[in-house]
């Protein structure tokens, strides 16, 4: 049997709603994710999509993580009208 170890993620973003505080500006969610700005625009690496049951749904790689993850989320939403993705982990290379 092949054993595969997944390195610890540099960033994990979770589907959630924003809890507004006094002077905090409202963040427009991108397909339910409001922490998308944490993923750097110019970093490459791998990313993993998980569902609510912590089952791995999708693994991908990209030269520009944020752009690629946005494209995948858009494609999934257009095809399915909804997605099971609960959180996304990114590992920079």
Automatic annotation (TrEMBL):
<dbReference type="InterPro" id="IPR035901">
    <property type="entry name" value="GIY-YIG_endonuc_sf"/>
</dbReference>
<protein>
    <recommendedName>
        <fullName>GIY-YIG catalytic domain-containing protein</fullName>
    </recommendedName>
</protein>
């Amino acid at each position: 049997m092949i054993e595969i170890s997944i390195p610890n993620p540099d960033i994990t973003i979770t589907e959630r709603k924003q809890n507004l505080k006094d002077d905090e500006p409202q963040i427009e969610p991108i397909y339910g994710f409001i922490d998308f700005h944490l993923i750097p625009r110019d970093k490459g690496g791998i990313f993993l999509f998980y569902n609510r049951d912590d089952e791995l749904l999708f693994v991908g790689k990209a030269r520009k993580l944020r752009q690629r993850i946005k494209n995948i989320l858009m494609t999934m939403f257009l095809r399915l009208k909804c997605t099971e993705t609960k959180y996304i982990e990114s590992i920079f290379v």
